[in-house]
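TA notes, week 10

Several of you asked for a full example with nothing omitted. So below is the full record: structure tokens for the whole chain, then the designed sequence directly under it. When grading your own attempts, check the secondary structure regions first.
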């Protein structure tokens, strides 16, 4: 029987890469996107002869929860949607703080609750995966808001794993280092990228395909004993240097 997988933030970048891999693996998909224009990126997934449902909505607006609640059966929940902020700590506004908490934490918290309750009711031994970051494990300049939210996700993941383990539901994070999601980044931000790469012992960035593969692995039987942890794909950055 085919698995049903919900992926948030599937319209571009890592989320889109995850959706493409799960489509190839013949999962039926429920995908959330922020903009209607992102739907065109997902239409080709239907060529894999799977069911694809697309939900449009901004995670800063809890109205998206009403749409998501209509989904009746999910085996895997992949929470990829994430906001960003690169301001110096004292320059972060109240509005930016509230929006980061809403997008990265409170709305996704509710989505996890909805589908954990559903998995328990349906006796589904499912997998919940949070896309975190190496910045959920270490600090960085001008990343106070982002680090706050990703450290929170790491803690939430561990607590959820303890609560849900008795139901056979596994909860983990995948934490990439800098991942090239647009090829024009290489030319436009070459100086910044060179600096970042110098801090990575393997001297390479994560790729979308690598991250998608790790996420898929966590949904398989080979990962059936893995819960409450983070798979960090950072080239050794957080190991110390």
């Amino acid at each position: 029987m085919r698995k049903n997988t919900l992926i948030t933030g599937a319209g571009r970048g890592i989320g889109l890469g995850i959706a493409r891999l799960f489509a190839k693996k013949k999962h039926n998909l429920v995908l959330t996107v922020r903009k209607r224009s992102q739907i065109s990126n997902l239409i080709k997934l239907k060529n894999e002869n799977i069911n694809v449902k697309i939900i449009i909505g901004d995670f800063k607006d809890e109205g998206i929860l009403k749409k998501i609640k209509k989904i009746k059966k999910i085996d895997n929940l992949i929470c990829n949607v994430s906001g960003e902020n690169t301001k110096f700590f004292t320059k972060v506004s109240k509005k930016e703080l509230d929006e980061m908490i809403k997008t990265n934490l409170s709305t996704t918290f509710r989505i996890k609750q909805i589908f954990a309750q559903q998995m328990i009711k349906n006796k589904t031994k499912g997998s919940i995966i949070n896309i975190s970051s190496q910045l959920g494990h270490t600090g960085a300049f001008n990343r106070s808001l982002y680090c706050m939210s990703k450290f929170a996700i790491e803690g939430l993941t561990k607590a959820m794993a303890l609560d849900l383990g008795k139901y056979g539901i596994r909860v983990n994070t995948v934490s990439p280092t800098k991942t090239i999601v647009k090829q024009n980044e290489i030319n436009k931000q070459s100086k910044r990228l060179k600096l970042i790469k110098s801090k990575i012992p393997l001297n390479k960035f994560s790729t979308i395909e690598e991250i998608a593969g790790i996420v898929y692995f966590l949904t398989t039987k080979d990962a059936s004993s893995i819960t409450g942890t983070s798979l960090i794909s950072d080239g050794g950055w957080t190991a110390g240097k």
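The domain at 4-234 is CATH 3.40.50.720 (Rossmann fold). Use that as a sanity check on your answer.
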